[in-house]
Design goal:
globular
Length: 273
């Protein structure tokens, strides 16, 4: 069964199922992680990043990803240690070290750092706390976070612009963004932040552009995409409902029947529309 343990406020140990799992994630903070077992694949509009056993990766904040977790070749469940580099810790580090304002980061959303021996040693030092989380006090966790920042800066000077880019998402063109990201099942507040708006201004701008509410538009858009995938690729509902942004198959099936007047299962077997 799924077992996720928060060792300390920003350090996470996660052990998954011995089967394929699909999920979606919004990362408000930078995340530095190592794959201890199994495999995790991250899919975004910027490409795909695969973490196998031993892979170390740095993920930029304010990103949307679809995630696919698989067991390893001998059946071991996907297992991961992550350190989240929150804005408070980074602001404090920048202040303590007189780090000047950085240019806007425009590089990759995920960076592989597997060959860094110091980062390997860093994660090795965290492993004893998996069995003894009470030993990792808040003070130690803060020290470990600063250590991670130091090691990243030693790895590549260019990472400073990623770590210390404190600008929040600016207001962007809403219609294009939503048409490219509607399949991510995240709260409306996250869509609002990622498009540089408050929730109220997001809803107001959305209504002006699409002449409907975000909730109604998202469901309709996801159902239309599901209809296209099943009718053109003969996919079953169980293969598409997560892909287009629905949380569960039951809700998807009910909504599909209401919109198109036919069961999704009938369409995928060629007996529907």
């Amino acid at each position: 069964m799924e077992s996720t343990l928060i060792v300390q406020h920003n350090i996470l140990y996660s052990r998954g199922y011995q089967k394929v799992q699909r999920s979606e994630h919004y990362f408000p903070d930078h995340a530095l992680g190592i794959m201890l077992a199994g495999e995790s694949s991250y899919y975004s509009t910027g490409g795909t990043f695969v973490m196998n056993e031993g892979t170390i990766g740095l993920m930029r904040r304010n990103q949307l990803f679809k995630k696919l977790k698989k067991p390893g070749p001998t059946g071991e469940p996907p297992t991961l240690i992550s350190v989240f580099l929150d804005q408070e810790a980074l602001h404090q580090y920048a202040s303590d070290n007189t780090i000047l304002k950085q240019r806007v980061y425009k590089g990759q959303a995920m960076i592989e750092l597997t060959q860094n021996e110091f980062l390997k040693g860093f994660f090795h030092s965290l492993r004893p706390y998996i069995d003894h989380p009470e030993r990792l006090t808040a003070k130690l966790a803060a020290l470990k976070t600063r250590e991670a920042i130091e090691l990243l800066l030693q790895t590549d000077d260019a990472l400073a612009s990623l770590l210390f880019d404190f600008q929040e998402p600016y207001k962007i063109e809403l219609e294009t963004y939503m048409n490219h990201h509607y399949q991510y099942n995240i709260p409306l507040a996250c869509f609002a932040k990622l498009t540089g708006r408050s929730l109220s201004s997001f809803k107001r701008d959305f209504a002006k552009i699409f002449d409907t509410t975000p909730e109604k538009w998202l469901q309709s858009k996801r159902l239309e995409q599901a209809h296209y995938l099943m009718s053109t690729q003969n996919l079953r509902p169980s293969a598409v409902y997560l892909e287009v942004g629905f949380e569960n198959l039951s809700h998807f099936s009910t909504a599909f029947k209401s919109k198109f007047g036919v069961k999704a299962s009938d369409l995928s077997t060629g007996t529907g529309l």
